[in-house]
Recover the amino acids of this structure.
């Protein structure tokens, strides 16, 4: 998931680049320089053709970024935080911290990206027109290709299958009309799956007609859409199962806690090995002061275990992510996934730890319920 490098940070949004982007950038520049641009004017020098190809590729990259910033800007304006934007092989993802609360906001956030792409298409189209009128072929080549690709980007994203922008707009519409976010997501995701099947079918058909590259591309896009739509359906199913339960329902209360002055060799020999537990709350004077995880123990030098105390390696209380006993399970699972943690101590208002919700607990809880339901 995190095969990306950080580029810069703007408006609190981290912009990253997936490694796959370099491959696409290279492939695109090569295709433009060796296949497309020489057809525009064969008298261009290789240096000029390649420079024009690099500039065009960079502008394509900026276009995709602008599309994602369109989503992000509207999200921020409607009070929805945006974590990061990552660009990968044929597009980008703006990671929004949570689902919008109102259907209208969701519609605007989803529509903003394709709108930016459309505006860019018109802009580059105008550049093409100027080039045409003035007889500047480099302008027609650059403007024509970028205008076309931005138009395709807008149209592709407007396909009404979730999680594409068009699918999100459709979901917002159904959500607004029926008032049910859940039903709207279901309909949009099912439609997304249907459209993915059509892509795969058309792709295979084209391939059998002899258009191999085109066919494989279309099928590949279909496969990508299928994965995304199926994932949305599964997430929805998971949410259904979690609905109505709180931290209190699934937390383990037989937590083995340890004092902060315990040394690691004793911790491992007497607590970790016999119990097989991976996570120990650190309690001092009846209060939770930190958390020791197996991960943290493994991070400490083994030859220093005798001298290292739990206090030295624990995640301190103020850095710990905790849950409230009445917090909905849906929210807890979402936080575990987004923060990449496997356990959350459950702490009451007085700072007493009353239990621990581990990912394993939640999963076995779900499995048991699923078995009984079947
Ligand atoms: Zn978009």
């Amino acid at each position: 998931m995190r095969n990306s490098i950080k580029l810069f940070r703007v408006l609190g949004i981290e912009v990253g680049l997936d490694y796959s982007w370099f491959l696409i950038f290279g492939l695109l520049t090569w295709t433009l320089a060796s296949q497309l641009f020489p057809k525009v004017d064969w008298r261009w020098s290789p240096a000029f053709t390649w420079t024009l190809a690099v500039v065009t590729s960079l502008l394509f990259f900026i276009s995709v970024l602008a599309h994602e910033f369109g989503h992000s800007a509207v999200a921020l304006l409607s009070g929805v935080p945006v974590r990061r934007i990552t660009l990968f092989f044929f597009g980008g993802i703006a990671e929004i911290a949570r689902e919008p609360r109102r259907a209208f906001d969701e519609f605007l956030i989803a529509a903003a990206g394709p709108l930016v792409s459309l505006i860019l298409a018109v802009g580059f189209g105008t550049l093409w027109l100027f080039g045409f009128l003035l007889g500047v072929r480099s302008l027609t080549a650059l403007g024509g290709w970028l205008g076309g690709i931005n138009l395709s980007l807008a149209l592709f994203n407007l396909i009404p299958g979730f999680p594409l922008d068009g699918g999100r707009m459709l979901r917002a519409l159904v959500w607004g009309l029926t008032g049910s976010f859940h039903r709207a997501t279901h309909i949009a995701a099912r439609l997304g799956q249907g459209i993915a099947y059509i892509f795969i079918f058309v792709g295979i058909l084209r391939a059998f007609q002899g258009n191999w590259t085109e066919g494989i591309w279309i099928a590949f896009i279909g496969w990508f859409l299928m994965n995304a739509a199926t994932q949305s359906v599964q997430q929805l199913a998971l949410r259904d199962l979690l609905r109505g339960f709180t931290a209190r329902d699934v937390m383990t209360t037989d937590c083995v806690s340890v004092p902060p002055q315990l040394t690691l060799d004793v911790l491992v020999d007497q607590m970790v090995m016999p119990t097989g537990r991976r996570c120990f709350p650190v309690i001092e004077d009846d209060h939770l002061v930190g958390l020791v995880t197996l991960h943290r123990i493994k991070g400490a030098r083994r030859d220093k275990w005798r001298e290292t105390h739990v206090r030295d390696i624990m995640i301190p209380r103020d850095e710990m992510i905790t849950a409230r006993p009445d917090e909905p399970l849906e929210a807890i699972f979402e936080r575990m996934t987004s923060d990449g943690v496997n356990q959350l101590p459950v702490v009451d208002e007085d700072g007493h730890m009353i239990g621990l919700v581990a990912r394993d607990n939640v999963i076995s809880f779900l499995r048991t319920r699923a078995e009984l339901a079947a």
The mean pLDDT is 84. The first strand starts at residue 4 and ends at 10. The pocket of zinc ion is lined by residues 67, 71, 113, 157, 165 (CB under 6 Å). Strands lie at 4-10, 13-18, 82-88, 91-96, 279-284, 287-293, 315-316, 343-347, 353-358.
